[in-house]
Amino acid sequence: MSVVSEGVAPGIAGNESGLDSIYREFGRRAVTRRGESTVMFSGGLDSTTTVVLLSEVYEKLHLLTFCNGYGHCFVGWSKRQRSNLDRILGMDRYVHVIQSCSDLFARLLINTLAKDYRTYRSKFIWCMACKLAMHTYTIMYCLEHEIRHSSDGSSGQTSYYVEQMQPTLKAIKNYYGEFGIDFSTPVYRVGSRDEEMRILAQKGIKKVGLSIAGRNPGTQPLCVPGNLIYFFSTFLKIHPRYSQDDVLRFIEEKRGIAESYMREKLGEKGLEMAELVRRLKGDGGAQWPAVD
């Protein structure tokens, strides 16, 4: 049984500047802005840095903030970065959408919580189901708006979070890829929170929330269950150890529910998911290559 524990995820090493990270992800085409991308956006340090970096690549960004409806508080705090983004990007270069994903989160976990816990015997199921619901809603948004790229603020500094473990991110990248969407994590190799603050400071953002135990609360939603799950990790640096095999098995099991949900919700709008995917992939339905 494979276990991923504390520290930087396997295969991720070394520090990079912000633009080095962008060039590695996207190539030197980053110097010319084009196209659009979604960003899963909380308003915190990692996702705000992701937005600033992607503003060097894409002409327009769609910032998506989600609420799972079960212990997610202060979702409106994500709006606190809007004045900075208005100044840095301009109001015409981004949109910010706040949306509930509670109904899908309930299907993925809440309705079967006792059963799932008996099966996996780990608290990771809460955070992983929540993030899978957010990724699924992001995929639906991309399909509806014909957007072929998406990013989030996953960071190698917090690779002990189940949703930011490298095997998890590979599975999520492949999930997006099946719908013709390329998924990336531009700040994953940025080596420290100080480096992220330096990137933001260059754009005139001098502070992101409060600085508490290496975190920056105050500009992003508060997840009460998530904070309880990671309490010892945040304050005592005692990080959880999750079975990689169990996490991947959980994702695979729940993906079927998520994809059925997407098909249902798009159908309610008179949209056929298969046709949207064909349109997004283009040229004969080619996929983004899977990640081994």
Fold and architecture overview:
The chain is globular. The protein has twelve helices and nine strands. It has one domain: Rossmann fold. Helix 7 links the parallel strand 6 and strand 7. The protein is an alpha/beta fold and 292 residues long. The strands form three sheets. A five-stranded parallel beta sheet has the order 5-3-2-6-7, sandwiched between helices. The two termini are 18 Å apart.
Indicate the proportion of strand residues. Answer: 5-15%
Mean pLDDT: 85
Main sheet summary: 5 strands, parallel
In total, how many domains does the architecture comprise?
1
Secondary-structure arrangement, i.e. CATH architecture = 3-Layer(aba) Sandwich
In the CATH scheme, what's the topology name? Rossmann fold
N- to C-terminal distance: 18 Å
The radius of gyration over CA amounts to: 18 Å
List keywords for this structure.
single chain, 292 residues, alpha/beta, Rossmann fold, 5-stranded parallel β-sheet, two-stranded antiparallel ribbon, 45% helix, globular, disordered N terminus, disordered C terminus
Summarize it.
The protein is an alpha/beta fold and 292 residues long.
Give the SSE map.
Blueprint: E1 3-4, H1 18-26, E2 36-40, H2 45-54, E3 60-67, E4 72-73, H3 82-88, E5 94-100, H4 102-108, H5 113-120, H6 124-145, E6 149-151, H7 166-177, E7 182-184, H8 193-202, E8 222-223, H9 224-229, H10 231-236, E9 242-243, H11 244-268, H12 273-281
